[in-house]
Amino acid sequence: MQLSNAIPTLENCRFCLMCRHVAPVGMVTNQEALTPHGMALLVTSQQRGLVEWNAETVGIVFSEVDGGNSRAHCATDQPFEEAIAAVRAELVAQGLAPTAVTQLQEQLTRYHTPFADEQPQAVTGSGELALFVGDAAAYLWPPTMPAVLKLLNHAGLEPVEVGHGRNNGLLAQSAGFPELGAQLAQTTFDELAAVGAQRLLVLSAEDYYGLNQAAADRLGVLQPSDLHIRELTTLLAEQLAAGEIAFCQSDDDTPWAYVDPTHAVRVPERHERVRGLVTAVMPTPPRELFWRTDRAQPVGSTYLQFSNLALAERLTRARLQDAKDSGAQLLICEDPATLHHLNRYAGEYGLRVKGLYELLAGQVIGHQ
């Protein structure tokens, strides 16, 4: 989205409070300037010459989390997050982005990930089914891949691994580097074409959104016409329902809650499927968080962890407090980035964190 196309959206948002009750940053800061209508009012005021860009006003624009909550709760489907991302891209182009954001751009350009100083793994093999590993699974939550490969083996699947160590491109677009985001997404699609894949499994809501809607609508990168993308949790849920894979119940009766990962509100059809997988192995009913399913709040796993680390931490701690208030002591999630951020502070709240893929892999009992 170009800035000229973003302004009409922000004009619509500047005096609207429709999504105010689910705006993550506004919820944790209680600062109206950091709500969607506050940010929209700031940008449109700057366009009118009433406000200047300075460290404070630029900092506000780089404090929008891009988690999907605003658009998910907008009756007129205003692309607020995309519009603010376009403003950030303009600020980057003008050399006004915070230093940490510029450093993120340099890291993504060189290594395709902000989480390691190494290139993504080369793709080997070919096949009709591929698995996008990404950078969060590769670097932020190491137990993910052994568990995923065990589950796929029990499901009778041997996908080709692509994008091992590469960001899906959403992080770059959110931070104000749409061309770089497009390059990252296109590289993954090129790998898929090279290996002959027609089906792609992804490990998180973020990767599903990033390589589907975000790649096409926000970056202008179209996936191959014959490619079908699915979350691994969807595949496992379908195989469980069909009796093609089975799990025994865990003997862990710790009060637990499933944490909807960052970007889950952008994939609403997933909510019940993934919960069905968790309840298949846990022996006790769940404790549901208040901020869940269509009003789930992100943790600090978006680009905000680079542009405003303190604010990203506050988002993560808010999710942990919500979980503690529910009476849960064990938090379960499949998204490596969400798990990583929850785990940083979970002990301070008397909570422990468990990856869903590791939980399922520990209870799988094979083909049926």
Gist?
With 368 residues, this protein is α/β, with parallel strands linked by helices.
- Kindly report the spatial arrangement of strands forming the biggest sheet: 2-1-3-4
Helix content: 40-55%
- Give the DSSP E fraction (strand runs of 2 or more residues): 5-15%
Q: Count the helices. How many?
A: 18
The assigned structural class equals alpha/beta
Q: What does the main sheet amount to?
A: 4 strands, parallel
What string gives the helices and strands in order? HHHHHHHEHHEHHEHEHEEHHHEHEHE
Do you know the CATH topology of the largest domain?
Rossmann fold
Count the beta strands.
9
Multimerization status: single chain
> Mean pLDDT, rounded to whole units?
95
The CATH architecture of the largest domain can be named as 3-Layer(aba) Sandwich
Distance between the termini: 48 Å
**Count of folded domains:** 3
Rounded Rg: 20 Å
Task: Please characterize this protein's 3D structure.
With 368 residues, the chain is of the alpha/beta class. The protein has 3 domains: 3-96, no CATH class; 129-238, Rossmann fold, CATH 3.40.50; 243-367, Rossmann fold. Helices cover 49% and strands 10% of the residues. The chain contains 18 helices and 9 strands. It has helices spanning 3-13, 24-29, 36-47, 55-61, 69-72, 80-93, 99-111, 136-139, 144-154, 170-175, 178-195, 205-218, 232-242, 271-281, 304-307, 309-326, 336-345, 356-363; strands at residues 129-134, 160-164, 199-202, 228-231, 245-247, 256-258, 330-333, 352-355, 364-367. The strands form 3 sheets. A 4-stranded parallel beta sheet has the order 2-1-3-4. The chain has a 3-stranded parallel beta sheet with strand order 6-7-8. β7 (330-333), α17 and β8 form a beta-alpha-beta unit. α1 (3-13) packs across α3 (36-47), α1 (3-13) packs across α6 and α9 (144-154) crosses α18 (356-363). The longest helix is centred in the middle third of the chain and has 18 residues, at 178-195. The N and C termini lie far apart (48 Å).
